[in-house]
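During the no-cost extension, the postdoctoral fellow (Dr. R.K.) reprocessed legacy sequence entries with the updated structure-token encoder. One reprocessed record is reproduced below for audit purposes.
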Amino acid sequence: MARKKAKQVSPSDAVDEQLARYRAMRDFSMTAEPSGSRQKGSESELPFVIQKHAATRLHYDFRLGWQGVLKSWAVAKGPSYYPGDKRLAVQVEDHPMEYGGFEGTIPKGQYGGGTVMVWDQGTWEPQGDADEGFRTGRLKFVLHGQKLKGKWTLVRMGGRAAREAKPNWLLIKEHDEYERGPEEQAITESKPDSVVTGRDIEAIGTQEDHVWQSKESKKRNLSRLAQKRLRFRERTTQVDAPDRSNVLNGIPEEKMPEFIPPHLAAQVSVPPDGEDWIHELKLDGYRIQLHVVEEEPGKRNVFIYTRGGLDWTHRMPDIAKAAAELPVKSALIDGEVVVLDPSGKTSFADLQAAFQEEKDAHLTYVAFDLLHLDGHNVRDLALDQRKAILEGLLGELGDDSILRFSAHIRARGEETFRNACKLGAEGIISKLASSKYSSGRSKTWLKAKCVHQQEFVIGGFTPPGDGADGVGSLLLGYYQDGKLMYAGRTGTGFTHASQKALRKQLDELQQSKASFAELTADARKDAVWVKPDLVAEVQFATWTGDHRVRQASFQGLREDKPAMEIRREEPIAMPKPSRTRKESSHNAPVEKTSSKATSVIGDMRLTHPEKILDDESNVTKKQLAEYYFEIADHLLPFIAGRPLSIVRCPEGCGKPCFFQKHVGQGVARGIDSVLVPNKKGEGSEEYITVSTQEGLVGLAQMGVLEIHPWGSRNDSLETPDQLIFDLDPDPAVEWKTLVEGAHEVRDVLKELKLVSFVKSTGGKGLHVVVPIEPKHEWADVKEFTRNVARILEANHPDRYLIKMTKSARKGRIFLDYLRNDRGSTAIASYSPRARKGVRVAIPLQWEELHKGNPIEYGVANFNTWKKRLKNDPWEDFWLTKQALSERAVTAAANLAESAG
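Re-encoded structure tokens follow.
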């Protein structure tokens, strides 16, 4: 029969086919983004472009021009000139060639909304056959850019054409004259601006000289309100509030919560300067929520709550009366109660006196945010919209009201901060104008202080030296990892009256032992210990090198803050400026939690962060989450895109733990699922899979202390891409013997032309791991590894056994090849272990084995060993392309048979 001719595809049709996914993700009646021309273009000079993209999260879009389109990857951290950095690059849809020249703004609400900068551009040269590189997942090329030059490699994780929608690759700098060392400044930091205009990301977003604007969105009132940022003047003039009804019409009704944990500010040394930040004076008062509820027309009840949820309505009747005059059916307002001196400054000491003397008339309530209005949750609106509505409400009360609006200044953060300090203010609060309201601490609200001032727990006191009734000094502390850390003393700032009142409270809390974790002999001298229940506001000059406050002065007691929430306040790194809502992910609600025990890691809210998961190392749930967050770039390549089994220890090591592999109820955000056909071929099961930093933090939220991936990927479940030999020694086996065993495994594999890598397990064993092309099914791989194990057992029967026989194991190494079976798993590199000490499985160089078992690597001391990550001992793991050849399979079988 005559053979059919293959259908001829024109170059323009090929371009259309490649752009089909790109076009399917966009409505070109709503956006002016290019749909893409049908011209294939020349291959004589291939363009590349890197666009810095401040969307939901700041990332870098790496694009290579090929076959008439831009092949595209999203690189979260951007490219690195250091060959040891393997940057995760998530492949996304092909883009039109015209897209590479865009620098400007894509409006919010549209796909990819945010600010786009042309960070680098130039040409690229494939090294070898580019089509083959794209197909096999190993593309080598040379860049000729303004910032990036030299040899680079893109390696697809998994080793073959992935069937996932967004396969993961690694972007790696190859060794050449352009490479840089790990200590040199990153190119993304040294050259952050546009190669086209020289502007930074903030300037591009602010000037709006090039906007891919929706053509229809202006007709949609709700969409416009959600996207547009209200432009405030400096609050020296009145700004009209937006129409309240228009805003609320598009928001579903919701019953007003009884209490909403407050949005808290992170501390910085220098405030942000960008146009997308507004700045308010930092007030020295009590954080207060006003709840206004209309019981019947014209009659409103008001409830007043502290930041911890205590009902203080009875302590502020005048403020409650003033709030009842607000023209609302219901409202929940966030603000601060203060006492203003004649110059307009706030004084915490005067505030305390006002409460002690029950002089409510001296109090002023300064409102700075609106959370709920007339039965609608408005926390998801942009901050500047919420403030505009709030200002309109308060404006109707009149100038003599004790309810005041917290005015602000836009941009010029450093100048505003300097002026505030000159005026004697405590500092300023900087807020991202586009941010949602999010319970917990986040980088969308920042505080910069003119003086060092924070809360401390009182753990003890000394009596006055003259024997008088009162307080000589207070012993101060703060909580860290569940322990009360000693922070020094304060012996000034008391009045005669406050000394007597404080001594009375302290006497009622006396106990025989100190609650501090560690104390020097000097700290113990003359001390009287008390239960750590009271919280003091303290002003001080600085921190000393041994973590003590210097020149501390008592300002008063904080009745509104629980002692267990007190931490040492340290400035964080400034967030990178952007006019987009790239920070808005910090505001995303995760789950309803109590304000008394939450923390935010990345974008994830962590409940019970101070829960101790291990009594030996005192690792807390928060430390585990921070470890996962920081190690993500190194851990994810070993688990992303694979089915996982996890070990959950909700109460920590030593308490009941359990394995979980299926997605069930209560799985945290960022944790996905993959359908795995069961062994009988009767249906599928939903397995856990994690491919993001957010997902790792989600595992910490679930109390996951171990991560065990399959040896195959989600897109090739039946063909593993690695072999694992688990060397599990009897307790009597010495480390030296175990190391010799690992080398013997390596030598046998080397004879079979296979390169192997070694890692510790976080316990007493070692894993020898062999990356392979995923071309063989599980049964074949299992048989091969069994034969290798048989060879070793036959050659050294006194050292190895391959059957788990307890009586025969004494003094020998169990060589477990069953890790190479469908559904079997092994501990991931960089995963913690659910054992005392919470140590970590670490990739090693073979030469390191002679140094002894690397049990010093744990979650608790991560800061002491994370510098190790700069020199990856498995640098060649993802670059090693080797097949499990027929020759090797046959040779292993023959050797095993002849060995007996």
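Residues 13-207 form one domain. The first helix runs from residue 11 to 18. The remaining legacy entries will be reprocessed before the final report is submitted.
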